[in-house]
Amino acid sequence: MADITQDIAAYEEKRSELELKHMGKWVLIYDRKLIGVYDSVDATAAEAVRRFGRGPYLIRQVGASHVTLPASVMYHPV
After folding, report:
1. Which helix (H) or strand (E) holds 36?
2. CA-derived radius of gyration, the chain
3. pLDDT tens across 8-51, in order?
């Protein structure tokens, strides 16, 4: 299983480049790899669940301040 702290570290390593190219977009990072850049949190979460199930994985909006959600929060597509 991937370690979310490693995914956070991977985001931080890529942050400058992401902010230059993808400010305001949403990114999905899994197992220290940038999986994709998306226009909405819904699209990002749907792709994360489709590919990796319950995770853990990192979904973050490029340039936004850090927000931590409790593990009990799950994405349920409508």
Report:
1. strand 33-38
2. 12
3. 999 999 999 999 999 999 999 999 999 999 999 999 999 999 99
Residues ≥6 apart with Cβ < 8 Å to 45 = 59, 75, 77
Any idea of the CA torsion for 5, 8, 10, 14, to the nearest 10 degrees? -170
Assess if residue 66 is contained within a domain. no
Residue of 4, 17, 65, 76 whose CA lies nearest to 28? 4
Is residue 19 within 8 A of residue 10, CB to CB? The reply is no
Domain count, the chain: 1
- Alpha carbon distance 27, 22 (integer Å): 9
Please identify which residue in the block is written with the tokens 């994405």. 75
Which domain covers residue 38, as residue numbers?
Answer: 4-61
